[in-house]
Amino acid sequence: MGTMDILFLSPGYPAEMPLFVRGLAQVGARVWGVGDQPKEALPEDARKALSGYLPVKSLWDEEATIGAIQNWLGGRKPDKIECLWEPGMILAAKLRERLGVAGPTVAQTTPLRDKVEMKKVLEAAGVRVPRHGRARTRQEVLTHAERIGFPLILKPVAGAGSDDTYEVRDQAQLDEALRATQHVQEIIVEEYIEGEEHTYDTVCANGEVLFENVGWYRPKPLVAKLNHWISAQAVCLKDLDAPGPKKGRELGRAVLRALGIRDGFTHMEWFHTPKGEAVFGEIGGRPPGSRLVHVMNYACDADLFRAWAEATVHGRLAQPIVKKYNAAVVFKRAHGPGQRIRAHEGLDRLLERHGEHVANLDLAPVGSARADWKKSQVGDGWLVVRHPDLGRALELADEFSTELRVVAG
């Protein structure tokens, strides 16, 4: 087979996309980017890796974008079309259908963007999902709430992450959530699942899981999103055969089969209840954000950006990827009245004690502007600690969470 030509939507955003583009070039593909950034605004990794780039006015003007791409290609047909940013996945599917390129169709992609359709497919396959309902009006929300009962979760049908997501435990909180989500066209009302929240992440090719990860959110993302003082953590676990992770793997593989996912990166969220039940949350046909791919890399001493590219281009990994550590990312938020970072209190002391276990340290520099904690998961910096022993890894993560203070003044 000759050199593979891959059309990649949005190669410069979100932050991890240039690293996937770089990976494709590293394994021998020609990568043609399409995005709504000027070429000169693309990160260096993307600019160097691309064989060509088409800037468009807006990726979300789908017909105009498809027409511009067809004119640009001039009758040429790429071997694959990739988009690893969730809002662009339907556009990628429409492009495949319009250009006659193999890969997920609109019908196959829709359940990955529509949480209600996703859960319908999985319920039919016997997968345990939260009780739920789709709502476009206040009355429909109230009807589903009465049927399901408190506590509830309200979130957008086509959302990603924890944006516009609300935990609702009584009628007053439901009324407040309804006011806060008036701008959301469609809401999914679903049963709130008590328990720990985890991820199940994979790289697949030709129906085979080539790499898998189980992550653990500490605390649940929604709790961290609503409380400024929390330094959120996500832990990539080393032992995937332990009882909890094993249940997540079994659930995750059942979900992949039910949805017919055979290729690419996937990111699933699931709950481990106090009774030991594994309950599906949602899944995306894309990698996780919030630096979690980096954390997987530190857990394995590997490059999952390149590994995804190997799976995409060659259908295999160059070598097996094995977990060596439990790796935990800790996100820091500045404290203090000011808008500029003034100090990293406790950092020197922590590095003196635990420096050998710190795999990455990327804090907002002193003098830089503080981030809006309500809009940024990464906040004012992040770090990764790792250790082969899970208990020790959690102790390290907790020390950096509580003893390191990013101060704004």
Distance between the termini: 59 Å
CA-based shape = globular
**How are the strands of the largest sheet arranged?**
13-12-9-10-11-14-17-16
Taking pLDDT < 50 over at least 5 consecutive residues as the criterion, the unreliable ranges are none
Task: Summarize model confidence as the mean pLDDT.
Answer: 95
Number of strands: 18
Structure class: alpha+beta
The CATH C-level class name of the largest domain: Alpha Beta
Kindly identify the CATH topology of the largest domain: D-amino Acid Aminotransferase, Chain A, domain 1
Q: State the helical fraction.
A: 25-40%
Give a quick precis of the structure.
The protein is of the alpha+beta class. The protein contains 14 helices and 18 strands. The longest helix is centred in the middle third of the chain and has 17 residues, at 243-259.
Describe this structure in words.
The longest helix has 17 residues. This protein starts with a strand and ends with a strand. It contains 14 helices and 18 strands. The chain is α+β, with helices and mostly antiparallel strands and 409 residues long. Helix 4 runs antiparallel to helix 5 and helix 5 packs across helix 6. The protein is 35% helix and 26% strand. It folds into 3 domains: 102 residues, Rossmann fold; 61 residues, ATP-grasp fold, A domain (Dna Ligase, domain 1, 2-Layer Sandwich), CATH 3.30.1490; 213 residues, D-amino Acid Aminotransferase, Chain A, domain 1 (2-Layer Sandwich), CATH 3.30.470.20. The model has no long low-confidence stretch (mean pLDDT 95).
